[in-house]
Amino acid sequence: MESCADKLAEAAFGAGTIRTVATKDTIAKDGMTVIQRKRIGDMLLEAGLITTAQLQTGLEEQKKTGELLGAILFAHGFISQQDLFKVLSVIHDAGGKAEPGAESTVMPEDMDALVKQSSSVFQVESGLDRRDVDSAQSPLVRMVDKIIATGVGRGATDIHIGPDTKGTRVRYRVDGALHHGMYLPKDLLNPVVSRFKIMGQMNIAENRVPQDGSAEFLYRERKLDLRISSFPLINGENIVARILDKSNLKLGLDSLGFADADSAVIQETLKLPYGMILVTGPTGSGKTTTLYSCLSFINTVNRNIFTIEDPVEYQLPLVRQSQVNVKAGLTFASGLRSILRQDPDIVLVGEMRDLETAELAVRASLTGHLVFSTLHTNDALSSVIRLIDMGIEPFLISSTLDTVIAQRLVRMLCPECRQELAGDSAVYGKLGADPRAVKLYQHKGCDRCGGAGYRGRTVIYETLKITPAIREMINRKAGLDDIRREAEQGGFRSMFQNGVDKIKSGVTTLEEVSTVTRTGL
């Protein structure tokens, strides 16, 4: 009976062909030899492992997601794990990189080749012990290093590794969006998780509770920090590794995307001897980088600056930085209480999560300290309501709060491939823009941006300055709409309006701004 591997080999090379021949069809054209490579979908179809309808379903999903066709067919259950990795092995072996059945330990230069190699390289996974996942010569260690290096090379901020329907999926977060990386056999999940845990000095024997750790990774003579988190799921553990590149840290409000006029207003606020400055937004909106930029502006040898963070993402010169350690009893509240006995001039509290921390921060600003902190609110105006809901008295808020910055990150259009919108596009009407005076753009995709149409991110923001009139409204617990009207009379512009400015400047698109703000359109 013809085996699956025989079917695949015959589909790839034709009946009676020797399997060591490259996975290509040779065609004579104008006296020259033209090499054509067969696609994996055609090979599976000719081998009778999938139907035409299944192939079409996979191709349609590939257009939407950009994932590898083999991984899509595998995830839908159209082919088995054995079928997928046999066809990948046939392609790989025929390419002359390894003999069929031989165990190769050479790390390939690209992710696709790594997937092709994975079944033969790591088929002995079940026998791995701690030495296997901690030895620099281990194929598993080199595979994990390659996963991390590929993420860094693609400009990823996070690496996501976790169980999928029938395998192990690796994804990268680039410019705020998750992208497919690779698809590995299900049996590789536990060894990969163990390797990350060892790197992060976590307990590899514990898989029932979440764990956190950190590690250093050397990439092209650059030392990177990894923040590793594991989380137990019903079908395995999920790993997320945050990549922190200290050499790529951009400090300065201008470099983050703040307009010159707004930067000047914020910098004047930073010269205050005491008070409270808040930066709000969801996780991953760049709050920490904005706070560090503020500190760098006022950081001199004449000022004593302390921080309590969770975690410390980047180390700043002259700044005394500490990290929350709940197990040891160091929380935001207890840390802040002790910091106030260290004679600080400026204090940064990573986040005001509870009433105790908020009260200490407010009272610190009342006693002659300039306090920076963050809140999780939707916009700048909501910060006042949030503090009141936490239990802070309105008169304390109005006496201490000076400036609130709310922000989000949006992807920037790739300057190499952005396309100008037609003058009759509905976007001009939505933004009230005249196509004769303003050029708007849309994303396209090219090699420089990896086909995404976007490259890099910038901040869109709103800045609320607490004026005497707003202080009086806070004291009498005025409604949010009333405070908004008063702020707008004083020149307050919403985050969406700031986003529109960047759309009209050709920096981003309405689609991007609409994903992070309430447009009101």
Task: Write up what this structure looks like.
It is a single chain. This protein is α/β, with parallel strands linked by helices and 521 residues long. The protein is 38% helix and 23% strand. The protein contains 21 helices and 17 strands. It has helices at residues 4-13, 40-46, 52-65, 69-75, 81-94, 111-121, 130-134, 139-153, 189-199, 253-256, 260-270, 287-298, 332-339, 355-366, 382-390, 394-400, 426-431, 468-475, 480-489, 495-504, 510-516, and strands at residues 24-29, 32-37, 156-163, 167-174, 177-185, 211-219, 222-233, 236-244, 275-280, 305-309, 320-323, 346-349, 370-375, 401-413, 419-420, 441-442, 454-465. It has a seven-stranded mixed sheet, with helices on both faces. Strand 12 (346-349), helix 14 (355-366) and strand 13 (370-375) form a beta-alpha-beta unit. It is globular and about 75 Å long. The termini are far apart. Mean pLDDT is 82; it is low at 5-35 and 92-128.
In brief, what are we looking at here?
The chain is of the alpha/beta class. Helices cover 38% and strands 23% of the residues. The strands form four sheets. Strands 11-10-12-13-9-14-17 form a seven-stranded mixed sheet, sandwiched between helices. Strands 5-4-3-8-7-6 form a six-stranded antiparallel sheet, with helices on one face.
